[in-house]
Amino acid sequence: MPIASARHVPGACANAFRSDPRCEPFDRAEAAWLWTMAALIARREGARYTANKGLVSRPCDPDDVVKCLDGLYRQRRIDLAHARVLRVWGERQMAPSKLVAIERHDHALWTEALERLEWPLRVKGIVV
């Protein structure tokens, strides 16, 4: 269970990194997603997640990124095919290649989903 802090207050995530100079937002949605999946995999395998206990502090929890993705799904901006591709390739910790024929469709869905996820993450201060 995460440690309680201002970062866990709804809407506070956008201001978290501005007040904490050690907190570093992601440079793009793909980096945030891969970090989120790594944290979720570690949690699933039994690791105890503690907020910002790593080499780099982040302005959010993995659940904040998942909530942004869920919002896109509820608004019908992405569908289950997008979510499946994000999960499968996120677990592999890599993006699908547009150069490999069998991965081209997944690459298109991956790119589309991350382009749509970029703005909600930017609004919350998770991505700069």
Brief write-up:
This protein is mainly alpha-helical and 128 residues long. The protein has helices at residues 13-19, 29-44, 62-74, 80-92, 104-123.
Write the layout of secondary structure elements.
Elements: H1 13-19, H2 29-44, H3 62-74, H4 80-92, H5 104-123
Helix pairs in contact: 2-3, 2-4, 3-5, 4-5
What report would you give on this structure?
By secondary structure, the protein is mostly helical. It is 54% helix and 0% strand. Helix 2 crosses helix 3. The N terminus is likely disordered.
Q: Indicate the structural class.
A: mainly alpha
Helix content: 40-55%
Overall shape: it is globular
* Weakly predicted, low-confidence segments: 1-18
Strand content: under 5%
- Give the termini distance in whole angstroms: 27 Å
Task: Report the mean per-residue pLDDT as an integer.
Answer: 85
